[in-house]
Amino acid sequence: MNQTLFAFFITNTDSEFDPLKFTSIIECEEPNNDLSRFRGFIVHKSGEKVALYKENLLLRGCTIRNTEVVSGIVIYAGHETKALLNNSGPRYKRSKLERQMNVDVLWCVLILITMCLFSALGHGIWVWQYDDKRKPVFDAPGHNGKYWSPVQAAVYLFLTMIIIYQVTATY
């Protein structure tokens, strides 16, 4: 059965095991991903407790050889099994070069943003020195005939510098 992932053995060689007549209660720990530990017990109607340990556990994919008869009960099935809880998925392997390139790209982005911020801040302060009557020669008025405020000029220059610094960095 594909979904049956865990089972433990009931080793009672004196009698045959009949699943339809099994009336005992199995108490065990909650599903977890620790493959080296399993604790639980079977409580029979007489009150007798039989301990269950990891030696009584059969994990998914195990092969039993040289055994004629095996009796067992499924404890965890589906997504609650130890094998699936222990599986964290495929690990993404990255080379040292790829990790170094990621760090270098991050530094390039931080340097670019810092340069653009300093350029925009300097431009905003420079535009702020001029009043509305005397503007620098290069500063053109907007579509409504008014000049941009120093903050607005700094924001536009920041966006312009991002493009200009990226283009000049590639050549």
Automatic annotation (TrEMBL):
Highest taxon of source: Eukaryota
Regions crossing the membrane: 103-127, 147-167
Keywords: Membrane, Transmembrane, Transmembrane helix
Protein name, entry field: Uncharacterized protein
Species, as recorded: Phrynosoma platyrhinos
